[in-house]
């Protein structure tokens, strides 16, 4: 056997070994990260910055810390427009993002690779086609954007400026809800669900709630959900997810069916922690 064939066989063997052993090694690394506790300084920061962390049961706190460790180990944070993304900033984003997967088995946004963090809102140029094929271009300033499941863009000013207020606003939760929506196969307000009957109940409740919100917005009524949720089903799911975590008691009182669907999907009951 000549040297070329030997080299080919060696390369093939390495590739096969990596295919077989790679997932197992990755799972072991992730398990180590999940088992490692956060330091006390990190915990103190999360108690100040993420109110739900301080309110949730100790068992869930420990689980969230493990998810945060995995998130920080696997995702790249990129500061944009001269911003330096510090450890506390990373902790804040990671903890709020991981709230959405706290009740789900082994899910830590596996396809996500990087987070681009701007100091403030960023300009996005977009083009869209109407039914007649006419292209319209526009520029918008955004506080967050989930382009796909590999990158998410966030404004740090919006993360720190409005979370936890009466508006039930949280840009991190909003954009990571869009990520979960992407996982469901499209941006249509339907994340990946299980059985057919679960999908049917979800569709019925969400459509009724979405239609009711649109009617209320048309009548210029005050709503718990940000009127932006009436834009389309994808925004409705993202805004409803914000309210589920930021104003769970009010959402349960005013929209019990919607709260119930989100509770079943996220496998959490944040309204119960408020007491």
List keywords for this structure.
single chain, Collagenase (Catalytic Domain)
Describe the structure.
The chain has 275 residues and is of the alpha/beta class. It has one domain (36-273): Collagenase (Catalytic Domain) (3-Layer(aba) Sandwich). It is 57% helix and 12% strand. It contains twelve helices and six strands. The chain has helices at 3-35, 40-49, 51-55, 58-74, 87-99, 156-162, 171-183, 196-218, 233-246, 248-254, 256-266, 270-273, and strands at 76-79, 114-118, 122-129, 135-142, 144-146, 151-155. The strands form two sheets. The chain has a four-stranded mixed beta sheet. A hairpin with a 5-residue loop joins β3 and β4. α2 (40-49) packs across α5 and α4 crosses α5. The longest helix has 33 residues, at 3-35. The mean pLDDT is 84.
Structural topology:
Blueprint lengths: L2 H33 L4 H10 L1 H5 L2 H17 L1 E4 L7 H13 L14 E5 L3 E8 L5 E8 L1 E3 L4 E5 H7 L8 H13 L12 H23 L14 H14 L1 H7 L1 H11 L3 H4 L2
């Amino acid at each position: 056997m000549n040297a070329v064939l030997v080299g080919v066989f060696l390369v093939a063997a390495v590739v096969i070994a990596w295919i077989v052993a790679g997932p197992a090694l990755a799972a072991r690394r992730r398990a180590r990260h999940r088992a490692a506790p956060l330091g006390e300084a990190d915990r103190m920061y999360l108690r100040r910055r993420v109110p739900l962390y301080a309110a949730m049961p100790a068992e869930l706190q420990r689980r969230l810390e493990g998810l945060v460790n995995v998130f920080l180990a696997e995702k790249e944070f990129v500061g944009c427009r001269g911003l330096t993304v510090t450890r506390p900033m990373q902790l804040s984003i990671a903890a709020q993002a991981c709230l959405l997967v706290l009740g789900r088995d082994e899910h830590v946004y596996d396809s996500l690779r990087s987070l681009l963090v701007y100091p403030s809102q960023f300009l996005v140029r977009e083009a869209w086609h109407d039914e007649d094929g006419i292209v319209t271009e526009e520029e918008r300033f955004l506080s967050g954007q989930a382009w796909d499941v590999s990158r998410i863009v966030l404004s740090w000013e919006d993360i720190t400026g409005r979370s936890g207020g009466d508006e039930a606003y949280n840009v991190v939760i909003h954009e990571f809800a869009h990520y979960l929506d992407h996982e469901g196969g499209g941006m249509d307000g339907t994340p990946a669900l299980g059985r057919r009957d679960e999908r049917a109940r979800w569709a019925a409740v969400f459509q009724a709630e979405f239609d009711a919100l649109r009617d209320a917005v048309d009548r210029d009524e005050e709503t718990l959900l940000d009127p932006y949720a009436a834009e389309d089903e994808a925004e409705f799911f993202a805004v409803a997810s914000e309210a589920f975590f930021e104003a769970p008691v009010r959402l349960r009182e005013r929209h019990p069916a919607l709260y119930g669907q989100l509770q079943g999907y996220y496998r959490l009951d944040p309204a119960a922690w408020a007491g």
